[in-house]
Each structure stands twice: as structure tokens, then as C-alpha cells.
Specification:
5 helices; 7-stranded antiparallel beta sheet; alpha+beta; 12 strands; Jelly Rolls; 3-stranded antiparallel beta sheet; about 240 residues
Length: about 240
């Protein structure tokens, strides 16, 4: 069974994010929230076709492919920083925390697209309205989870927080699969939501201090089944580091 995402309007999403810690925007609402042109977004999925395999999966899987990039957003200026390792403490990622993970960088061709900066700076503005104006340390992850070996796990670490201020999950593509249900839970209580993002450029926003989240495994319904996402985290005070 597929549960429809609990879409909120562009006019209401910040109120809901502040009150509930999570909000889901339909693709049609995205340009009203992040200053971008939908025609420009349609050109981006091609950059998910050449993601290298994730060499750090501790469950022995071969189902995850990714690229990674780091930026600082300050006002209306987005600065790419020197390529660096992705690191999380064990408190936030019991499976893959505590190690430096060096992923291949996001391609220069993708970063050169004006819409990339528009998305990152737009998310930084959302974070500033939610948490207060400040520089934002951004990590962006391109993910492809595939079903070549039968099962693909978008969140092999299970339900978790990321140790940041704001998490944004964009669905880029979903083809030939079942599963991949998004689950969001109140970190301090029993309340939760479950739904499946099926439309490209659906956006899930999470206040990482207030909620935990996970995505259920995917299974193939056709050859080359996969689920592509862009996951962006925003943190104040600096990047997570050892």
C-alpha cells in the first residue's frame, strides 16, 4: 500500500515545519519556496547516471551509489569548500559513524548550473527563518539506491537523526521499484507519519533536532529499478568533524 505524502501548501510549510518538525512540499509548490525555475530542475536527473559506488557500506551491500559536496551559505553567497570527508559521530550513525568517508565529488558541470546555487541558498534562507540568521555549513549528497542484488536500503542505519539543524530530501527519480516508504517520528514522543514520495522533486524538510527519520528498503518490480535522491543537510557552527 502506498500512502500519499501529507503535502502542505507553500504558504503554510514554514508554520508546519516550526510546529511539527517536518513538512512535505509537492513539486508544483517548490518554485514558490525555493527561487528556482522548474524547467531548470528537469535537466538535473541526468547527473545521477554516473554515481560511483559507495565503498563504505558495512552491511556488505552493493546497492548504494553517491557523490558528495560541501558549501558555506552566508547571506546570498554560496561558497564551495575544498573537498572533504563526510563524518558523523556514532551517536547519530551507529552503522557508519566514527569513520572518515571520502566520496567522489559532485561534478563541476552540476555545480555550475545556476539552479544548484538557487536550491542551496533557498534552503539556507529556510534554515535562517527557522533557526535564526547565520552562516550555514551545507553538505549535499547525490544518492542512487538500486535493486541489482534484490534489496536496496536507503537508510541502512535505520531510524536516525543526522546531527544537523535542517535536512532536505528531494526525490529525483523512482523507477521500477516497490517500497521506499518515508517514515518520520517525533524524537521525544510517539507521533509519526509514513508516506511514499513518488513524484520527482517532492521535497521533505526535517527539523533534525525534533524528529528522526528513515526510508524503508526497496525491492525490484522491473529491471534496473532504482530510487534517486538529493539529500542536503544544513548545520550551524561548522561541519561535523572528528
Amino acid at each position: 500500500m502506498i500512502f500519499t505524502p501529507p503535502y502542505v501548501t507553500a504558504a503554510r510549510f514554514e508554520t508546519q515545519l516550526r510546529e511539527q518538525g517536518a513538512a512535505v512540499l509537492a513539486p508544483t509548490s517548490l518554485p514558490a519556496v525555493l527561487p528556482c525555475n522548474f524547467d531548470d530542475l528537469r535537466e538535473l536527473p541526468a547527473f545521477w547516471r554516473d554515481l560511483p559506488p559507495d565503498a563504505y557500506l558495512r552491511d556488505g551491500g552493493r546497492y548504494r551509489f553517491r557523490r558528495h559536496g560541501c558549501f558555506i551559505a552566508e547571506g546570498q553567497v554560496l561558497t564551495q569548500v575544498a573537498h572533504r570527508a563526510h563524518w558523523q559521530p556514532l551517536d547519530y550513525n551507529a552503522l557508519h559513524g566514527g569513520i572518515e568517508r571520502w566520496f567522489e565529488p559532485i561534478s563541476d558541470d552540476l555545480l555550475a548550473r545556476p539552479v544548484w546555487s538557487q536550491l542551496m541558498l533557498g534552503l539556507a534562507e529556510v534554515a535562517s527563518r527557522l533557526k535564526g540568521q547565520r552562516p550555514w555549513f551545507i553538505e549535499a549528497h547525490q544518492f542512487r539506491i538500486d535493486t541489482t542484488d534484490g534489496i536496496g536500503r536507503p537508510t541502512p542505519e535505520g531510524a536516525h537523526r543526522d546531527g544537523v539543524d535542517l535536512v532536505a530530501v528531494f526525490l529525483i527519480s523512482r523507477q521500477g521499484i516497490k517500497g521506499g516508504e518515508s517514515r518520520v517520528f517525533d524524537a521525544q514522543g510517539p507521533n509519526g507519519q509514513r508516506f511514499t514520495m513518488t513524484e520527482p522533486w517532492t521535497l521533505l524538510l526535517l527539523d533534525d533536532e525534533r524528529v528522526i527519520h528513515e526510508t524503508t528498503p526497496i525491492q525490484p518490480m522491473a529491471e534496473q529499478g532504482h530510487r534517486d535522491t538529493l539529500v542536503v543537510t544544513l548545520r550551524s557552527g561548522g561541519f561535523q568533524a572528528i
